[in-house]
Each structure stands twice: as structure tokens, then as C-alpha cells.
Amino acid sequence: MNAYSVSFRTVSPLLLILAVLLAGARNHHFASYTHLPDASWAVFFLAGFYFRRVRELALLLAVAIISDYVAISGFGISDACISPAYVFLLPAYGALWMAGAAYARYYRFEPETLLPLAGLAFLGTAACELLSSGGFYFFSGRFAETSLAGFGERWLSYFPQSLAGVAFYLGFAVVTHIAVTLSRNGSVSNVHTH
User: How distant, in Å, are the alpha carbons of 87, 106, 123, 169, 173 from that of 159?
Assistant: First the structure.
């Protein structure tokens, strides 16, 4: 059992926290009111790391879809992002979930595993940006003319902001993970990994 493994009783509250964060700090919804970056991408990475089961991925995808529906129908948020390209969010979020699950294979409660965390978070975020922005750019019907060069410009302008948002939430998650692990184990010397 790894240091991050937790019992089912403690998993449920963590999943609930991720779902609330996903719904509450979703781009163009409530995050704009609180000035928080969109938490969606980091949530899917963290879900892949902590849970790695498809049912949690499906649950969080449902939370994202319901959150969008409620924001648009109940709070008057613009539906500009809803188009045939919306379906590209499924593989985009799946890429982040897979990156988080891949990091779980590298994880040990040691500083050396922060490098794979950074690398896999970068790759997952890049893939998510390619799928979500690419899907929207080429298939939303909102752009009269599309080209690879035009998409490249858009990707380069949006990717740093997306990466910063993921880094913000993952940084907070790392600090929280360390604090919880140390509080459960008393000190770093008592943490056992396998």
C-alpha cells in the first residue's frame, strides 16, 4: 500500500471535495466571480492520481456537464462554448486523468517524484489543450476559416494560462498531500512506501 492510498471511507470525502471544486471553480461559471482559475483540469489530473477507476472519471465528467447546464440555464452564463466540439472535452479530460494515473505509478513520498509530477502534469495539460482547443477551433463552427497555423497561434496564447491554472491547484494539492501524510504518519521518517 502506497503512502497516498486511503481507505474507502476517506476516499469519498476527497472525491466530494474534487467534485465541489470542479463545479465551483469551473471556467466562465463561478470562478470568474471569485477570480480563481478554472479547477477542472487539475481536478481530472488529481482524480487520475488518487482514484484511477473509470467510475470516478465518469462521475466527475457528469459533474462537469451538469455544472455547465446549471450555469447556462440557471445563472445566465453564456453558452458560447457549447457546440458540437463540446464532445472533445471527454478525451481532453481523459488525457489529464490518464496523466494523473501514470504519475501514481511513479509516486513515492520523496522529493524526487516531483519531477515526474511536473512532467506528466505538463504533458497532460498540453494534450488537454490540444484536444479541447483544437476541437473547439476546428469543429465548433465559430470560426469562418481554420488552419493549422491559426490553431497554433491560439494554442500558444491559451496554453500558458491553462498550465498556470493547473500548476496553481496542483501546488496546493501537493502541499495538502504532504501535510495530511505527515499528520497521519508523525514524521517523514515514519512514512513507508512500497
Answer: 20, 25, 11, 16, 21
Q: Which residue has the cell 506528466?
A: 120
Find how far residue 165's CA is from the centre of its chain.
9
Distance between CA atoms of residues 46 and 20, nearest Å: 14
Cβ-based neighbours of 157, under 8 Å, separated by 6 or more: none
CA distance 157 to 150: 11
Q: What is the pTM of this model?
A: 0.84
The C-alpha atoms of residue 9 and residue 72 are separated, in whole angstroms, by: 34
Domain boundaries, the chain: 8-190
Classify residue 28 as left (phi > 0), alpha (psi -120 to 50) or beta: left
**C-alpha cell belonging to residue 82:** 457549447
pLDDT digits (tens, 9 = 90+) for 65-77: 998 888 777 766 6
Spacing of C-alpha 88 from chain mean position: 15
Structure-derived torsion over alpha carbons of residues 178, 110, 121, 94, reported in degrees to the nearest 10:
-80
CA gap 148, 37 in Å, rounded:
27
Residue 190 has what DSSP assignment?
Answer: G
